[in-house]
Amino acid sequence: MRVGGIEGGLSIVLKPVGCCCSVSAMSRNDEKLKKLLDEVTSSEAKYVACLELIVEKYAIPLKQLGRKGDVELLLINRIFSNIEDLYNFHKLFFSTLKEQITAAGIANTFLKYADFLKMYTLFVNNYDRCCDAVDRLRKNDKFQSFLAHARKDKSSQGNNLMSFLIMPVQVWRGIAFYRFVSLSISDFFRSFG
Fold first, then answer.
1. DSSP label at 153?
2. Is 21 contained in some domain?
3. How confident is the model at residue 183 (pLDDT cuts 50, 70, 90)?
4. How many whole angstroms separate alpha carbon 162 and alpha carbon 182?
5. Are the beta carbons of 12 and 121 closer than 8 angstroms?
6. How many CB atoms within 10 Å of residue 123?
7. Does 160 fall in a domain?
8. What CATH number is associated with residue 89?
9. Residue 130, domain member (yes or no)
10. Chain Cα centroid distance, residue 139
11. Does 93 reside within a domain?
């Protein structure tokens, strides 16, 4: 089986802790691991909630308005691109991630789903067209009314549509995943010597 470009998956070998290692050093590593696991799962939970909000509070209702002819459906589809695919992927990814209790388990989860992260390419490449579509639709009273109402919704916390739509672009650029994968895992494993 090929996972994340590595035959047979990822194998990580941790050196056994000998007598020379103090109990306090072991507990510091355990604390680091727990903090890392908590940070990763907490960040992913917040991101999944954000994607859910985009899909449930914006994409689906605006597509319904588009099908009724109240707003131009082509522009609505351009705005949301493949956001529903990203949401469905991250729900699956998160359910797998939150079951992990070791750094190796988290690393394997990232490797297992690495190819799916390519879905971001479509969204990111479409982002300028997304912004243009939002600007064009701002002339539509029903679209404006919808956005104003959605922004007042408690779940939006006062954020506008564009505040939510930039989040997948930020993830792609590494604000969440890259930082974790390249820094946290390698730093964590270096601490084991």
1. S
2. no
3. low
4. 28
5. no
6. 20
7. yes
8. 1.20.900.10
9. yes
10. 31
11. yes
- Structural domain for 113, as ranges: 30-190
The closest of 183, 45, 36, 178 to 117, measured between CA atoms, is 178
Name the residue with higher pLDDT: 24 or 77. 77
3-class DSSP state of 82: coil
Which residues does 134 contact at the CB level (< 8 Å), separation at least 6? Answer: 79, 161, 162, 165
What angle, rounded to 10 degrees, do the helices at 120-137 and 161-172 form? Answer: 160
- Token pair of 165 as six digits: 């739509």
Q: What pLDDT score does 104 carry?
A: 84
Q: How many C-beta atoms surround the C-beta of residue 175 within 10 A?
A: 13
The total domain count for the chain is: 1
pTM: 0.74
Q: Residue type for 51, please?
A: L
Residue-wise pLDDT tens digits, 82-112: 999 999 999 999 999 989 878 788 888 888 8
pLDDT of residue 117: 80
